[in-house]
Amino acid sequence: MENTKIGRPRCEKAQQAVMKATHELLNEKGGSGLTIEGIAKRAKVGKPTIYRWWPSLADIVLDVVLRQAGTDIPVIKFESLEKTLHEFLRQSMKATVDWGGAHLRFLIAHAQKDEDFRKRFRNNFSLTRRSVLLSIFQQAVERGEISPEQNLEILTDLIFGSMWYRLLIGHAPMDMSFAEELTEITIQITKNKSTS
Amino acid sequence: MENTKIGRPRCEKAQQAVMKATHELLNEKGGSGLTIEGIAKRAKVGKPTIYRWWPSLADIVLDVVLRQAGTDIPVIKFESLEKTLHEFLRQSMKATVDWGGAHLRFLIAHAQKDEDFRKRFRNNFSLTRRSVLLSIFQQAVERGEISPEQNLEILTDLIFGSMWYRLLIGHAPMDMSFAEELTEITIQITKNKSTS
């Protein structure tokens, strides 16, 4: 992640240090102890500098997630609905367990207290993730694996909803069996519609 | 809600005043401005008295939700899976829109910052709600409307998950069409399994 290329603008290096520190602190301590002070200290950057770039603590975390998701989650080539969806869900579980769980829990909690941030989170994170899953479903429609009558928005709500629900409530794990079970039940839904 | 029966212990009256104040303030202003100070003022009760009964602000809100859900959401008599599930979902949407949305958003946000509270929320609210939906599904299994092979836990995750997801992200409404669409897709899932 660290780029030491000579001539890189100083502020970008500092911004990267802030994001790196935020990411590390979330992984080490979870979201409940995260503060601008702690990040500033770890990143060796002044608090006013941080506030110049980000309107709130949650916006730093959102940037970390967007950047990490961009580098960590590869674009999936469509094979069959089952294979592609399974791969998408495996990646999502892995990212959540490996590095993103504390980040996402922090973001959704903050979004409930700050309506402007909720919009930024929805537009920059949720709608982007939805569009990836919707495009998988749309490709399956084009190949006749899902009926054109299927409500894809509801299907997308079910998948992302159940993942958020497990992450937030914690009654069951975000693991590879869950990825498999979600794939299986989606295939069950789409098969019924296509043969009805 | 107010009970003026003579001889009722004084502390129970004060507890009810605290819960009533909390409920009103959440409906008027949402969760972001809710404080123990505000509740104490509205309920005409001292802050130390409140802290004697509840370990945190979120625990008052949880008590309000549990009490309200207990009186507001009637037990549903099982007819068919479709009718019973539809009624369950209509009631859940109605309770969320009419009075519970701000309460639930406040609770889930707090649960992300306080692991002990998260357990209390999970055990007292989520698992209770899950058991109601699971019992509807189990009755449908007994009547042959759902295959005994169907994974009911995943089905429950899909339903509650998608409702939480819409409530928290806010990309689409919690309305009666949503209750209908969720019923329809659940029937689609169960039909496929029972005929396969």
TrEMBL record, chains A, B:
Q: Which keywords, in A-to-Z order, does the entry hold?
A: DNA-binding, Transcription, Transcription regulation
Q: A Pfam family matched by this chain, by name?
A: TetR_C_11
Q: One GO MF term, please?
A: transcription cis-regulatory region binding
The reply to whether Cell division figures as a keyword in the UniProt entry is no
Q: Which residues bind DNA?
A: 35-54
Q: Which Gene3D superfamilies match?
A: Homeodomain-like, Tetracycline Repressor, domain 2
Which top-rank group of organisms is this from? Answer: Bacteria
Query: Where in the numbering of this chain does the HTH tetR-type domain appear?
Result: 12-72
- Read off the InterPro entries from this record: Homeodomain-like_sf, HTH-type_TetR-like_transc_reg, HTH_TetR, Tet_transcr_reg_TetR-rel_C_sf, TetR_C
Q: Which SUPFAM superfamilies match?
A: Homeodomain-like, Tetracyclin repressor-like, C-terminal domain
* Tagged with keyword Transcription: yes
Spell out the PANTHER family in the cross-references.
HTH-TYPE TRANSCRIPTIONAL REGULATOR RUTR, TETR-FAMILY TRANSCRIPTIONAL REGULATOR
Q: What is this protein called?
A: Transcriptional regulator, TetR family
- The organism's taxonomic lineage, starting at the top: Bacteria, Pseudomonadati, Thermodesulfobacteriota, Desulfovibrionia, Desulfovibrionales
